[in-house]
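Contributing new complexes? Match this layout with benzylamine.
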Amino acid sequence: MTNFFSRVGKQLDDILVSGARSSARRFGRRSALAKLGGFLVGGAVVATLPFDRGFAATGEKPAPIDDDKTCDYWRYCALDGNLCTTSGGSKTSCPVGAEASQVSWVGTCHNPGDKRDYLVSYYDCCGKTPYSGAQFCLHSKGERPGYSMGLHNDINWCMANANKGYHCTVAIVLGVAE
Ligand code: ABN
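Output block (do not edit by hand):
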């Protein structure tokens, strides 16, 4: 009887030991480390892929540089006023019922499309009240303090027109800045 119990006990031991070994092989420290290593290497490779992560900082995609309805459009670099593209006109023409100012402000803007600098003239469109839904932009590249009017761009250029009411601003490219 004692022999019987000791044989059964030995068989149970063998079963438990072999089960423990097999589970150590499957779920053991080395196996877990190997899997963790795989995840880390995979994560590092994905992190180095050349995705556009610009939106991560702001939470939104950057405005396209060729969208002339946004302040980021390249030729608006020295424009201080309402965009005519959002006031019923275009980037080069005043809306119906408004006329271009007699005088203007000139800036030098870099066009990332062809990597060249251009002289841009900002004419105000006059004779109409501003459109309430217009996009207002405040860019002052090249502007100097307003001790002299010609150095400052926060000016109503409709001042020389018969009708001095400001409506919006257009941006005319005059030529390449040498
Ligand atoms: N040049 C745009 C503008 C108009 C009125 C006042 C300030 C600036």
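Reviewers usually confirm one structural detail per submission. For this one: The chain has three helices and five strands.
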